[in-house]
Amino acid sequence: MKKFIVTFLKRGALFAALGPVILAIVYFFLNINGVVESVPVSKMITEILTATLMAFIAAGISAIYKVEKIQIGIASLIQGSVLFLDYIIIYLINGWLRFEWYAIVIFTVIFIAGFALIWLIIYLSIRNNIKKMNEKLN
Q1: Which among 61, 69, 95, 131 would be 20 to 30 A from 106, CA to CA?
Q2: By the 8 A CB rule, do 60 and 8 touch?
Q3: Contacting residues for 116 by C-beta, under 8 A, at least 6 apart
């Protein structure tokens, strides 16, 4: 467990700088859609810090695959759950997502579809690489 925590902290710290980048992307899209033109300083500070925390947690949880010796399905479930909670809590705190049941359901469906799609791509890529290695061995 100690190794997981250390790896989590290292990975999180490495990618925490992406928090402000994520925030800039969110505000870029809000701005081009006419939702936000200016942001109060106190709101911007909160959002920079929470987006940094979001990136820290998202990067840190990937340590589950490197450190823990658990099945990939369980590790994926843990990672997906942590990412979902990380994202939805930060989005709700920052007001990026309305605290309404239909908004949360739409977010959840999109998150699950995106997470599954990413894992499908990874699975197919690994399967293809294994197939190529087996062909070289034969």
Answers
A1: 61
A2: yes
A3: none
Where are the chain's structural domains? 2-97, 99-138
pLDDT of residue 48: 86
Distance CA 49, CA 19 (A): 8
Q: With a cut of 70, which residues of the chain have pLDDT below it?
A: 1
Vertex 88, ends 35 and 90: CA angle to 5°?
70
Give the distance, in angstroms, between the CA of residue 89 and the centroid of all CA atoms in the same chain: 12
What DSSP character marks residue 34? T
Helices (H) and strands (E) in the chain, counts: 6, 0
User: What b/e string do you get for 50-89 counting C-beta neighbours within 10 Å, with b at 16 or more?
Assistant: bbbbbbbbbbbbbbbeebeeeeeeebbeebbebbeebbbe
